[in-house]
Each structure stands twice: as C-alpha cells, then as structure tokens.
Write a structure and sequence with these properties.
single chain, 113 residues, five-stranded mixed β-sheet, Anti-sigma factor antagonist
Length: 113
C-alpha cells in the first residue's frame, strides 16, 4: 500500500490529509512534507489521519518529529483520527498526552492553542 498526501489551508491552519499506510517505507514521504511545510512558514498543522489504514513506530516518530519542528516556532500540530485501531496505538504509547487528537478537521481547526 502506498501513502497519499495532500495539503490545503483552512483559516490559519495547514491541513495535511494522509491516506494509506504510514510505515518504515512511506514515513520518509510524510517527514519530507512536514519539513517542507515548516520551512515554508506553516507552523500550525492539522494532520488528518482518517484515511490511514496502518501506522507503525516509524510513523509515530515522524509525527513526534513534526511536533518538535512546529513547537520550535511556537506552532502546533493537531491530529484528526477517529479510527479505534489507530487511536489505540496513541493510547498504548502514551502519545494521547502529547498530541491533541480530534474527531474532525473542523474541530481541530476551531481548537485554540
């Protein structure tokens, strides 16, 4: 399975829609996208993971790296995820305490930092 990425702007947030699998093979593509967005001045990101079928530790590492990157610019990285199998990974790893996780993109965009 491949990884699909698309970005759009909603208000002052950049929404990154992710689809497919985020694993050791596809995670570098997501990392490049996040680095590029931050380098271009997008410091408030929403990663929409509704289309993600699989997430491994490499993918988690990329998301944590993205969070560190935006925080260096006093930014934010919010996740949109409502799939139980993906949410379970965040709960098991304790990352629910690190990432704000929302049910919808609208909810994530409306949230204040």
């Amino acid at each position: 399975m491949d990884l699909s990425l698309s970005t759009r702007t909603v208000g002052d947030r950049t929404v990154v829609e992710v689809g497919g699998e985020i694993d050791v093979y596809t995670a570098p593509k997501l990392r490049e996208q996040l680095v590029e967005l931050v380098n271009d001045g997008s410091y408030h990101l929403v990663v929409d993971m509704e289309g993600v079928d699989f997430l491994d530790s490499t993918g988690l590492g990329v998301l944590v790296g993205g969070l560190k990157r935006v925080r260096a610019h006093e930014g934010s990285l919010r996740l949109v995820c409502n799939q139980e199998r993906i949410l379970k990974i965040f709960r098991i790893t304790g990352l629910t305490k690190v990432f704000p996780i929302h049910q919808t993109v609208d909810e994530a965009v409306a949230a204040t930092d």
